[in-house]
Each structure stands twice: as C-alpha cells, then as structure tokens.
Amino acid sequence: MMDSYDEIKKVLSLIDKKDISVYKGDIDEIGLINKKTVSEGVRIIIDEALKKDERPIYIACLGAITDMAHAILLCPEIANKISLLFGLAEEIIQLVDGNII
After folding, report:
1. Could you tell me the pTM of the whole model?
2. Can you point out the beta strands (E) in 34-100?
3. Which among 31, 43, 44, 67 is least buried, having the fewest CB atoms inside 10 angstroms?
4. By the 8 A CB rule, do 94 and 21 touch?
5. Which residue pairs from 91-99 have beta carbons closer than 8 angstroms and sit at least 24 positions apart in sequence?
C-alpha cells in the first residue's frame, strides 16, 4: 500500500498536479480485512459516493483495488456511482469531467 501511495504522490508531483488528494489505503489483502477497521482511502470512497452530487466519481488506482472492494463490501449501494481509472497519467486527469478522489 505505501509503495502505491508514494508512487501516486510522485507522479502527481511530476505532472504538477499537487491539488489532487491521495489517501492511504488498506494494508491487507481483501480476505484479511477486518470490516470494523476502515482506512482513510475506503472512508473517502464511501463518503464521496454518498454525497448528493450528480457529477460522476472517478477513482484513479495504481496496483490492487482492495480499497474499492472494501468500500463496496461495506456500502454496496455505491457501486454504480463510481468509475475506476487504472494507472495515472496527465491525459487521464485532463479527460475527466467530474470528481477525482
């Protein structure tokens, strides 16, 4: 998890996108996750998806999508409100017309 977090921060810095938030996620694989312990990444996914906002929500992922799976396990109703973007590049950020979390 920390490798992905650090890499995302590095890429955003390199493309001069310091205004995009990055959150720390789960440190365990999905089968080992305790549903009572929620990482900041999982919490922000759920909180943003539950907001009354008509804009689409795009989540940029690098590596495993454990946080996304954990968020949907905890709050299944958010599944249809979110689109995942794999990898992270300036082109993706420029194409998105909505919320990036």
Report:
1. 0.69
2. 57-61, 82-86, 99-100
3. 31
4. no
5. 92/60, 93/15, 93/17, 93/20, 93/60, 96/58, 97/55, 97/56, 98/55, 98/56, 98/57, 98/58, 99/48, 99/53, 99/55, 99/56, 99/57, 99/58
